[in-house]
Amino acid sequence: MSTTGNTDMMYPYLTAAIPGIGGIFKDSAEDFAVTEIPLYPPCGSGEHVYATVEKKALTTLELLRRLARTLAVAERDIGYAGMKDARGITRQTVSIPGVSPEQVAALEIPGVTVVSVARHNNKLRLGHLAGNRFRIRLRGVRENARQLAQAALDIISSRGLPNYFGGQRYGVLGNSALIGIRLLQGDPEGAVRALIGNPEEIGDERWRSAVQAFHNGNLAAAVERMPPHCRTEKEVLKTLLRRPEGWERAVKSIHPRIINLYLSAAQSSLFDRTVAARIDALDRIEPGDIACKHANGACFLVTDAAEATARAASFEISATGPMFGRKMLIPAGQAAALEEEILETAGLPRDTFNGSGRFRLDGERRPLRVPLQDVTVAMDDGSLLLEFILPKGSYATSVLREIMK
Fold this sequence. Notes:
By secondary structure, this protein is an alpha+beta fold. The chain is built from 13 helices and 15 strands.
């Protein structure tokens, strides 16, 4: 049974034979820029204003809050295609109902610049983007960084990028997946202990002291010392303080949205383990695989391996891994055996995901690899500049880990 959290360091590299270039990522906001590639242009008429905005030092959720407050629109009515974090400079499109393009164009919100506005007849939905274009500067790299990066990128361009979720999916302590797995196992005490964490893995003195107090059984001190940004942990500790053995009640005190994040992290971890297990054959397809068409995301069971191999070689299709859930397509053959082994290692029987338990996860298939497109590499004043395009749902950190190591 797995008892550890998850970090990037667990997973093997596709480009293991190429030395890393080292360096520093996101030394400043300007070092990381991402621009959404729309799935379709706005039609020019309709009740929604599509605004392309550039934001700096803001998450997408904070952007939505500020737009809603400034325009007196319900936050839930504002649409967006993808979530972006606060670090770096990002351009993304949002849809806002019941306002004029002129109102939106005239907005003055700190950290936000309106780039363009146009009308459209539908709300923008999550996932309605073709991909993301990244421009990244890595500082403090090795002298031969360009040559090493190019060698790694050539392999990735030829074989595909390992479609890891990676460390950013698993929280600051790397424990989100373990919390989710404990929840799926029906182990509320284990989930709470995974949530509070290990004091040896926490650098902040106050936070570490709070966690140590919890492990020492001093719940009152743990509540008092837990930093304000640890809202979920603090609420759980307060619940335990009122009822020290009330592990189930403590879990129920966690906001459902946060619970869903933990469950999603558990799914992601199991997928990442599948990628890791198949890294040496990332670009191959076996009989029994569930393959995915990159053009439209359609999935199918592979019965003709020779034909599928030819389609995989042209990057028309790729093998997929599991985002376990009750609606997920189940493979056959070696792929099925591997996925059963991964579940067994995690201490999760297959029927965990049949929808009969407390948590209902739909599930889906996710490609084990994705294409890396429009790649450029250059040196600039001792820094390495990278530009590339990834499909929606794939992460630039998966590219950087292969280069930087």
